[in-house]
Amino acid sequence: IEIGLEEDAINFLSNIKLTPVLQNKLLDLISRKDKLTIQDIALIEKINKKEIPQNIDINYLDAKVLETKGKELEAIRYYQNSFENTKNVNSGIKYIQLSIKNRSRIKNELVADFAKFNTVETLMLVAEAYQCMGKVNEALESSYKAIYLSRNNKKYKNIFIQFWNIVIFNRCEFESPKNISCDCVVVIKDDNN
To answer: pTM here?
Structure first.
């Protein structure tokens, strides 16, 4: 369904008596939205959660409702449960982001599982999580992997900033290369000029 039609479908489904199949479609459409409205929350809360099949991630929906209501600490727990049960990448993202924002404890196992998605975006978030956890070596490794995966794509120029921030703020030291036979220079170039 196209983006503009999704909202129309939600409005239509919210105004009719829902069969279990239509209820599941409504929940699926709502779960894809970036931000929930008051009407979306009312629809989710009105549905009997015991009737929801397992292919609908109710922990993710509950977390989105709690986050929208400003209950971020409670939402973190639901995002965590969602990610642990379904490996929903969006749950992992929100779990880490909200945990960092609220300075909550971040589970090492969850971050390690999230890193397995092995994309530039997930590895950048993993690096940020590890840095908040005080695991500088893991943060550097994740940031370095993200740089490698970016393949010098200008879209991901913040990766380099993140990497050097980790290095500078944690006073990381690197071993001198052993196989360089003469002096060399690293040139940092701004492509905008």
So the answer is: 0.79
